[in-house]
Structures are given as structure tokens and as C-alpha cells.
Amino acid sequence: MFPAETYIRRREELAQKVGSGIILFLGNDLSPINYDANTYPFRQDSSFLYYSGIREPANFLVMDLDEGETTLYGYEQSMDDIVWEGERAPLKVQAEMAGIPSVQDIEFGAGFLLSESMNDRTIHVLPAYQEKHLHFLSAFFSCDIKDLGAVYSHRLIEAVVAQRSKKEPQEIEEIKKAIDISDKMHREAIAFSKDGRKEQEIVAQMQRICGEYGVGMAYGSIFTQRGEILHNNLHNGVLADGSLVLNDSGAESPFHYASDITRTFPVNGSFSDKQKDIYSIVLEAQNAVIDSIRPGIAYIDLHLKASEIIASGLAEIGIIKGDPKEAVKEGAHALFFPHGLGHMLGLDVHDMEGLGEDFVGYAEGQERSEQFGLNHLRLARELEEGFVLTVEPGIYFIPKLIDGWKSTGAWNDFINFELLEEYRDFGGIRLEDNVLVTADGAENLSESIPKLPEEIEALIGTA
Ligand code: GLY
Ligand code: MN
Ligand code: MN
Q: Structure pTM?
């Protein structure tokens, strides 16, 4: 974890922003259902980590803003716990490392929180997702689990999002550590890929690299020749001459910061002309966006910029007809680029989106578009110095979607469906890098990972 001063400062800033009431952070438990089952991988809640750094399970962090007191509620291990889990640092030591002055037993904490003295206090709590937390909050707020949405504190969510969005230098260093591991994973994946190898064998190589660094993947790898399936988590194919592999994989750092990187490459070691043409359009869109990133620019405008480059490139090939700007205005490009340009990155891969995507990606009063494609933008708001985000344009040929659009007859002015038939089996290409917004521009933190066609071609199948 970071030094105690980091967590003290973060909590002080949070207290200032929220003002009054009680803030309750629910730390994750070993299992979402039972206290003593370890049948699920344990991952501490990201906001709990952000304000305490404590990775041990089953703790509550309570900040009583009216009394100016912060308490860590947890449990000391029983002999049984020690027998099964090994000995952990006593609660008091965990608290000291996070600069928290007082500790209490969690049963006492639950009793205290559920007591009548809480009735007239404002309790600020973030959206919960572990089942036992949902039950606890349902008892606490005397409401059905399905109605909990109404009790989550917007004031707390907004304060947390404002803080966690702007990365401190030590957080950026963590993200860089994650990216360094991802760099090795992606090089290994490209080098190890060749005709006849199973997709899962390559995924296993990437998992091995994470294992060697003692970290996990930040999300389930997308490693597939069916790259047109945006989040394809199956790795059940065998690499075949002529196809493209889309590898969207990223490691976590030792302190649980994410990286999120995508590269796409041809199995047989060289891009066909057709593949290179589409690849070049995606690369041009991505470079143009990274060159334009700076504080004050709205990410939706960069999404539209990438969309126009994609539409122009496809128009040159003849797949899009008419004026590319007009095509983007009408939403025709979304047949090939149906997702958003990127999202925030931090302790979560889609950073903070568990608190509500609109709180993270949209400014107050900024409406989400209803147009297909644009409606999936996770991040649309103006960028600020210190944000770390992904830039991940792509071009996909999704047969069912193409057939659906064709059958309406509504897109014939913009789409050359006859030529598109030649791309039915193409798959998809996405390029994704992780970018820091600086005072006057941007730094591509994952620049070192090979991306130029000739760099990639030189590496394929060399392992
Ligand atoms: N890896 C998931 C994403 O790129 O959003
Ligand atoms: Mn991403
Ligand atoms: Mn990704």
C-alpha cells in the first residue's frame, strides 16, 4: 500500500467535499455469500482500497464527519481463522498503516450502525454489489434490496469520482507497472501465435507472465479470431492461416491498478492488403485522437473525430458511400464502430463504473445520446489533467448486424452492402492504448507495445 499520509489526505479531502453525515465504506469479504468460504477469488473493493489501502477482508470504514472520527470496524481472527487462513496483521496494525486512529469489532460496528441513534443521521454509502452488503444495507435502510438505488448517496459518489478520476503521480507509476507487464504479455502472445496453436495456449502464456509477477489480469482476456465479437471471452479456437487475432488483455499492478491493451495481428505473420487497409484506418484514427487529447476537450468530440476518420477510410475503400461527415452525422459508421472510444482507467478497468457510468463519464447536465453506437459511450465529458483513459477505436464486420441493417433498406445511401459481402468473414480490428492527460496534451503510457504493422510482423511466430 501507499504511505499512511496518502490515505489520511484522501480522507481529509473527501470529508471536505461531503461535508456532513456519516460515510460508510463496505470492504469486500472473502466470499460474496459466506464469511468462511474461499471458493471465490478475493479482490478488495476499489473505493475501500482507495481510502484505506487495506486489502484484508471483512472490514468497514466509517467516517463520522460530524464528530470528526474515523474508525475501522473489523474482526480479530479466531484460532479457527488462523488455522484455515494463516495469521493476519491485527486490526490495529492494519489501521495504523492506513493512518486510521481507531478500531472496533465489526459486530459492534454493525450494531452501532443499526442502532436507533442512527435514525436522524445522514448516512452516505456507495452502490453495493456483494450479496451480504446488499442484505446489510437493506436492513440498515429498512428497504427492499431492489429499492436500494434510491438510498445511495449522490454526494458521496460525486466526491469519490472527482477524487479518483485525477490520478496522483504514485497511481500513474502503478498503472505504468501494470502496463510493463502487459507489454511482456502482448509481445509473448504475438511471438507465440502461429497456425495450429490453440487460442487458450496463448492465453495461458499471458496468465503465466502475470503469475510470475504475482499479479492477476485486470479482466478476462479477449483473445480471439472472432474479433468482431466485442467482448468475446471464449478462447476455444485454433489459430488458422489467414485470420486476424484480436488480443485485448491487461495485467493489474501489485496495488491493483489496471492496464487495458489491445493489439490485432495476422496469424500467418503478414497482413494481407485487405487487412492492412483496415488496420491502417484504425491506426490513423487512434493516432489522431492521441495527438488531440488535452485538458478541456470533450471525449465525445474525439469519438466523433475517430468516427469521421473511420468513415473516410471506409469510403476510400468503397464500403461507405457519400460524404463521410454526413455518414457520421446519421450514425452509419456505427455499423463498423458500434462502441465508445474509451473509458477511464484506474483501480478498475472501467474505472469507477460500478458507481454509475454516467457519474464517471458525463458532466452534470450532459445527456447521453440515443443514437446507436453513440449511446454506448462510457466517456463523453471534457477531459482534465490527471485523467488516465483508454483510446480504443476499432472496425468490425458483424454479419448479423450487417444483415439487420441491410434488411431495413434504410442505409442504402450510405452503405455499399454488395461490397460488404467480401468482408463478412473479416472479423474485427481494435487498437487500444492507455493515455494520461497532461497539462497541455497527452502521454501514451503504453507506447512501447508494438503496433506498427512492420513491428508486429517481425515478431509473429518467433517463439
Ligand atoms: N477490455 C475491455 C475494454 O476494452 O473495455
Ligand atoms: Mn478498454
Ligand atoms: Mn480492452
A: 0.95
